[in-house]
Design brief:
Shape: elongated
Number of domains: 3
Radius of gyration: 39 Å
Strand content: 5-15%
Length: about 400
């Protein structure tokens, strides 16, 4: 595990300003060195271009080719090797290996060829300076190429160091990704096991009870003598609602038992087009309800359609539970600003369904469904009495 100082150094190096600061410092050093030790035009241009190009080595890594080439050109223009050219050349070679602009073998080969060219230029310069330079075919001429050999070794070391750092970071990244995939897989397996356990409980307990309700309601119309037509119709409505709940429960069990990666609903989800049926069901069990739709009907994404339907369904359930016999109005407004507004209000006593221990699960579920699509939901006493549930669901950006 790295120490705090090592992490601090890595953070500073990774900062966006790092290449600009270091490139600026090397450029300033090159200017100061050229003032103290003036060089020729070729050396001056090569040193300044090699140093200044370092500032773009991270945003545009191929510029490191210019850095190294300009450094070799600057060295070829003078037999003296400037410190600024050495520093910029080393950083440029490191950047070429670090970002793998070219394959390391090609980078080293290109650098070695450039070093050889510089060496040949220096040999020609030495011969014009009346120095004892043997001809290339004479004995002892191989010593003239010690410069290109040394430069090639330095270039090789800088490029390989950059490539090694790159490989180490790739290995670290792959290890972190593999660890993250393992954790995600374990979490998914745990979630699937929990979903399967929930599905078993729902099947063994809830499914059995709902099926018994359906059977008993169906049979009551035949086994109970003297039933009025209204009572017979009521039992049929109970049986139909139970069968609908069984179908919904079977769909839910199928979803719970399907892996999340390939989950697919086997039955169509209810949409806002089914609100009229929902209101009819509310009326069938003794409630008084009215559906009002304003604005142009726009097909919404499936999540928005389902959330709006479930919010309305739960609001009607709360109205039947806390204000039986009250008149309920369901308003759906398709706003011009891509905002869907739902209002479900009744003229009952305005009971706060979120009060009391163990209460409020329905309101919590409605608020969660609204938040799921980036909306909000409020519930409480209406301005004219009764209880009001209002949800605003933005379904897109303009």
């Amino acid at each position: 595990m790295s120490s705090p100082s090592q992490r601090l150094v890595r953070d500073r190096i990774a900062a966006p300003a790092y290449p600009w600061v270091t490139g600026g410092l090397v450029t300033a050093g090159a200017v100061a060195e050229l003032v103290v030790i003036p060089g020729g035009v070729t050396t001056t241009i090569g040193a300044l271009v090699s140093a200044a190009s370092l500032m773009w080595r991270r945003s545009f890594p191929p510029v490191a080719v210019l850095t190294v080439a300009a450094g070799l050109l600057g060295f070829a223009g003078d037999v003296n090797l400037y410190v600024s050219i050495t520093v910029s050349g080393l950083i440029g070679c490191y950047s070429l290996g670090r970002h793998r602009v070219l394959h390391p073998a090609l980078t080293v080969a290109g650098g070695a060829l450039g070093a050889l060219c510089v060496n040949l230029v220096h040999i020609n310069t030495w011969s014009r300076m009346d120095l004892p330079v043997p001809a290339l075919w004479e004995r002892g001429s191989l010593s003239l190429f010690a410069e290109s050999l040394l430069l090639s070794v330095v270039i090789f070391g800088a490029v390989m160091m950059g490539d090694a750092v790159r490989s180490r970071e790739e290995t670290r990244t792959e290890r972190h990704l593999a660890h993250a995939r393992t954790i995600a897989m374990e979490r998914q397996q745990a979630a699937e096991a929990e979903r399967a356990a929930i599905a078993r409980e729902l099947h063994d307990i809830v499914s059995h009870s709902v099926s018994m309700i359906a059977v008993q309601a169906e049979s009551a119309t035949y086994t109970t003598p003297g039933l009025t037509p209204e009572a017979r119709e009521g039992f049929q409505q109970i049986a139909a609602t139970a069968r609908s709940s069984m179908a919904e429960l079977r769909r839910l069990l199928g979803v719970l038992r399907t892996p999340q990666s390939g989950a697919a609903l086997t039955a169509p989800q209810p949409t806002l087009d089914h609100l009229a049926e929902l209101v009819e069901q509310h009326r069938a069990v003794g409630g008084t309800a009215e559906l009002r739709v304003t604005g142009e009907r726009v097909p919404l994404p499936a999540v928005w359609e389902l959330s709006a339907y479930r919010i309305t369904q739960e609001a009607l359930t709360n109205a039947r539970k806390h204000a039986p016999g009250a008149r309920t109005v369901v308003e759906v407004d398709y706003g011009p600003d891509r905002l869907l507004t739902l209002r479900v209000r009744d003229d009952g006593p305005g009971v706060d369904t979120g009060a009391g221990p163990g209460a409020g699960h329905g309101l919590t579920g409605m608020r969660e469904r609204a938040a799921l699509v980036g909306g909000r939901l409020t519930a409480g006493s209406g301005p004219d009495g009764g209880f009001l549930v209002e949800a605003e669901l933005p379904w897109g950006s303009g």
